[in-house]
Amino acid sequence: MIEGLFISASGMLPKSVRQEAIANNLANVEVPGFKKDNMFLREMREQMKTQSGDYPDWRLNRFEGAWTDHEQGKLRQTGDVFDLAISGKGFFALQTPAGIQYTRNGNFSKNDLGQLVNPLGFQVLDQAGATITIPDDFESPIIDGSGTVRVRDELQGEDTVIAEIQVVDFPELYDRNAMAQTPYQPPLRKGGDGLFIPHPATIQVPAEGMELVQGFVEESNVEPVVEMVKMIDLYRSYEAEQRAIQVQDATLDRAVNDIGRVS
């Protein structure tokens, strides 16, 4: 009977962790460029062990790790000349106090120094790894699909190239062998502020086949209805495990205090 309590409790632990991930996804549904998180469970490994005749570790917590779904979200038009969306693969590079980090959130603006920055104030980097400064005389830069930033002299009718936005990609994100190791050594780790931090061994390459779209931002790839259904399903499953523990506890109480009573 104690073993039954242990089994029920071990089933509740991964459900609690998954619930937290789903809640975080829903909380960030309106954040541009946000990528939803999912959980790796141990069911696949347990099935492989069972098929081979080995004894499954069902007593252990079946939560294996988290992984981020990098599926592209829809592009939403904002009309802001500093907003950028990546159509295709790739990430913007940002200079942060902790080093260079990456994002799909192209909700940029111009700070007091004329630098192109993200909502947290981190500078957007160009191909040379330098910050991008928009001259004070030009309020509306022109950014083409390749990331080239131009400013236009209306009097002269001439464009001047001032930078080329850096967009990098990480091939391991799409490699099946690398993806199989994601719970243990993810190519990109999501930081607390939503930015992506690459593993030191992760290979970085210039993004190919992508296009930057000015005046748009990429929406999060969270589907609220799907996440809500998952949350309700998990809640009911968690409740079932909880009721199973209560029933077993009541049975133990009766076995100890009633059946086992010496008259």
Protein described:
The longest helix has 36 residues, at 224-259. 23% of the residues are buried. The protein is of the alpha+beta class. Helix 1 (2-27) runs antiparallel to helix 4 (224-259). It has 2 domains: 1-69 and 221-263, no CATH class; 75-218, no CATH class. It contains 4 helices and 18 strands. The strands form 7 sheets. Strands 5, 6, 9, 13 and 16 form a 5-stranded antiparallel sheet that branches. The chain has a 3-stranded antiparallel sheet with strand order 10-11-12, with no helix packed on it. The chain has a two-stranded antiparallel ribbon with strand order 1-2. The chain is elongated and about 105 Å long. Helix content is 29%, strand content 26%.
Outline the fold blueprint:
Layout lengths: L1 H26 L9 E5 L1 H9 L11 E6 L6 E3 L6 E4 L3 E6 L2 E5 L5 E2 L5 E2 L5 E2 L17 E2 L4 E6 L4 E7 L2 E3 L6 H5 L7 E3 L5 E3 L6 E2 L4 E4 L1 E3 L5 H36 L4
Helix pairs in contact: 1-4
Uncertain parts? none
Overall number of strands: 18
Largest sheet: 5 strands, antiparallel
Q: Please bin the fraction of helical residues.
A: 25-40%
Give the overall shape, derived from the CA principal axes.
elongated
In total, the number of domains comes to: 2
Radius of gyration: 25 Å
Output the helix-strand order: HEHEEEEEEEEEEEEHEEEEEH
End-to-end distance:
24 Å
- How big a fraction of the residues is strand? 25-35%
Helix run count: 4
**Helix and strand composition category:** alpha+beta
* Mean of all residue-level pLDDT scores: 83
